[in-house]
Amino acid sequence: MDGACEFSRVVKEHFGMYPFAEITDFAKLAFQNEFGAGHLIRDEQKALEYLKAEMDALEGDGAHLYEYIGNNQGRIYLAAICAGKISLERFGSIFLESAKYVRGSEAGFLQKIEILADLAKAGELPFAPEDFWEFVEKWKCAGRPLFRHSEAYRQHYRPAYRVVNWEFCLEMENNGF
Q1: Tell me: the pLDDT tens digits for 45-86?
Q2: For the whole model, what pTM was predicted?
Q3: Which helix (H) or strand (E) holds 88?
Q4: Are 76 and 177 in contact (CB under 8 A)?
């Protein structure tokens, strides 16, 4: 399956799982699909400290332990730690190892933005294409900051995860995850 078809399929699956997702949530998915998690790691020790702090404040039902986001990327939810499926230390090492992979390009990301616009135009996403392009223009004018999940997404789904290489999710699944 080529990258464009795969991303389109992933977006549709995520809309089915997360019907309260908004434009910024889909843009975040596109960004994570293209670039993985490397943008989050500036200091490995601080990244691990932040992970531990997030674990202490974790709220969620643990319904999702991991999910595929395309381009050999997955989200491992912190609930996997709470469920005893993986240790905090192993979780942290998987995240740090995944972040070392340099991947993605602006051209690839912009292709995914076009796919989101096409899906909106086809009525397969919960926003109008013109609203999507307005969002993209505001994002560009603001200096292209990192995307955050929308308030509606955070309230409904309480996302607490890290983006990792999908091979780590498969490894855990093969070990009884």
Answers
A1: 776 777 777 777 776 555 678 899 999 999 988 887 777 777
A2: 0.87
A3: helix 88-99
A4: no
